[in-house]
Design goal:
It is a single chain. With 232 residues, the chain is α/β, with parallel strands linked by helices. Helix content is 28%, strand content 28%. It is built from six helices and ten strands. α3 packs parallel to α5. The two termini are 32 Å apart. Belongs to the ABC transporter superfamily.
């Protein structure tokens, strides 16, 4: 199994005022699949994503990804894992305002030994004509495309998306999800996507429902529908 999470727990706060965010979460995912994580605010969705991305450390349990047990890695090994293995896309784009679209993407391109072709990526994401613009000159959808390109140029094996459509209108959200679907199919990129929109689950191979920090339901789908068919 490409991703295997076993009995993961995570809490915040002090001993006398502790908030249990995840409790004994276990799941698996095959390589090249799309997994959607659903749940209400505070259910632990983003925390689970951050643990997979080694942005936070679990209190207990194991996370094994692509043959690597990241819960046993040193800080240096975790840094290499994030650099070489992962791409991140967040709800808020985190673009560098003083850099152009091309320059924002190149920041991550220089971090990897086997980047994707920049010109091809700009074309695929519809950014070629915007390459020399600054973030303030772009629409929200264009900024999110730039954020996606920045994550993808590293040629990551695993793409983590935290509410990537949350700040977008339905039309732009649909376009972004279609791009994610195309990326999954073209590059065989494994995608984890946190969302509050239940409609998005229809394009996923696996859906995990979180409630109060625990998985209460899991759905599998061998033939998910196309993203263009979603009613966002």
């Amino acid at each position: 199994m490409y991703i295997k999470i076993t009995d993961i727990s995570k809490s915040y706060g002090t001993k006398d005022n502790r908030n249990q965010v995840l409790s004994h979460v276990s799941m698996e995912l095959e390589e090249g699949k799309i997994c959607v994580i659903l749940g209400a605010s505070g259910s632990g969705k983003s925390t689970l994503l951050h643990l997979i991305g080694a942005l936070e450390t679990a209190d207990s349990g194991k996370i094994r990804i692509g043959g690597q047990e990241i819960t046993k890695m040193t800080e240096e090994e975790l840094s290499d894992y994030r650099r070489d293995f992962l791409g991140f896309v967040f709800q808020f784009y985190n673009l560098v305002p003083d850099l152009t679209v091309r320059e924002n993407i190149e920041v991550c391109r220089y971090l990897t030994k086997q980047p994707l072709d920049l010109e091809e990526l700009l074309k695929t994401l519809g950014l070629s004509e915007h390459r020399d613009k600054f973030p303030a000159q772009l629409s929200g959808g264009q900024q999110q495309r730039c954020s996606l390109a920045r994550a993808l140029v590293k040629n990551p094996k695993l793409l983590l998306c935290d509410e990537p459509t949350g700040a977008l209108d339905s039309k732009t959200a649909g376009e972004l999800l279609t791009l994610l679907e195309q990326i999954n199919q073209r590059y065989k990129t494994t995608i984890f996507m946190v969302t509050h929109n239940e409609e998005i689950r229809k394009m996923a191979h696996k859906t995990i429902y979180l409630k109060d920090g625990m998985i209460f339901r899991t759905e599998e789908c061998d033939q998910p529908i196309s993203a263009v068919q979603l009613c966002l």
